[in-house]
Amino acid sequence: MSADTTTTQVPALLKQVRETVAANDRWRGRTLNLIASENVLSPAARSVLDSDLLHRYAEGHPGGRYYEGTQYIDVIETEAAETMRRIFDAGWADVRPISGTVANEAVFSRIVPQGAPAIAHTVAGGGHISHARIGSLGKRTKNIFPWPTLDDDYTIDVPAARDLIAREKPAVIVLGRSLFLFPEPVADLREVCSEAGTRILYDGAHVLGLIAAGTFQDPLREGADALNGSTHKTFFGPQRGVMLSPGTDEAFCKTLDKGVFPGSSSNHHLFSLPALLVSALEVEAFGAAYARKTIANAQALGASLAKRGFHVAMADKGFTQSHQVAVDVSPYGGGKEVSARLCDQDIVCNMNLLPGEPGKNAFNPSGVRLGVQEMTRFGMGTDEMDQVADLMHAAVTNARNIHEEVGALRDRFPDVQYGFQSADLD
What we know:
The chain has two domains: 46-281, Aspartate Aminotransferase, domain 2; 287-411, Aspartate Aminotransferase, domain 1. It contains 15 helices and 15 strands. It has helices at 3-28, 43-47, 71-88, 100-111, 136-140, 158-168, 186-196, 208-213, 219-222, 250-264, 273-307, 335-344, 373-377, 382-396, 403-411, and strands at 32-33, 60-61, 64-65, 92-94, 118-120, 144-146, 172-175, 199-203, 226-232, 236-245, 311-312, 324-328, 347-348, 350-352, 367-371. The N and C termini lie far apart (47 Å).
């Protein structure tokens, strides 16, 4: 770029950046966000994001850094890890991973020998891409067996799973999903894993806040060797990751520690650690009430959609026990078309493969995945879930334009609930 071009274009581009960010903020403020992997921060958590820590670096652990000048972040990181240990009754916690996928990478890189067998959910069965041959696990091995399932193509067939573990003796089994509707059979598989020398990784990215609240399941008490998660879904913090373990196997925890640093991370985005600590304290204070409301809202949304003729997955089991609902929208054009149509009318969700769709194009699946955790944090309840279902039905059937109705509903819930205000930090 020439000096003349720079002189004439940069001011306009700078203005465009600010205006684009502001436009996104305005638009998001009037949408119904049903993306299952997102949430919002409280005013208190947001207030500690913009600090000098944006510019700083810290490798290693508090008290043992490779850089000087980290004495204040040491305090924050120590408190964040201790709070996580307390919330999850864990003996060991690492808050340095910058995402759930990075946390998974740290585990796989240290406990899965090259080419060793592993067992994980397929993407069509709800598994996360990091569990797949093309993801983090696939960097270590392509020898990944899918979980055997019952006729619903979702629920793990426990006797068949035990047989598979006993026969293949995998280095790791991965429980937990991206499409995550019901608890996993951790306890049912613990004994055979112990006999086979197999580690259990529970990927709790989506349900971490529900686990913290005691409203879903307790993987560490049920026998998981490690519980990984994202801290920005049902656990309503900044976009980071966490690793947890019972802590009874010191050598295993040291192995995981090396998987984080130097294995998968160097600096670990210090600026968002204070927000993680604030959010963890909020989960400790408000998380149980929030989780109960979130699950009730998801079940209400599933029932309201089914009442309007949608084919909601797992209806015979009550639709869900988490924050998510899965809907087959193939009668309305499929997941790609329906999610785009909804977004055009300010309801944001994502297309998603459904159980029973192995081999189907992930860019043109039958389903959409819905999550109620963000709208719950803005204070919506079961009555509003019925309104959301009605608006979705109107949009996908082209019954009416719902822009104004969506905006009017959203306007009733402008403020984040279940959290602290920035003034609470004074």
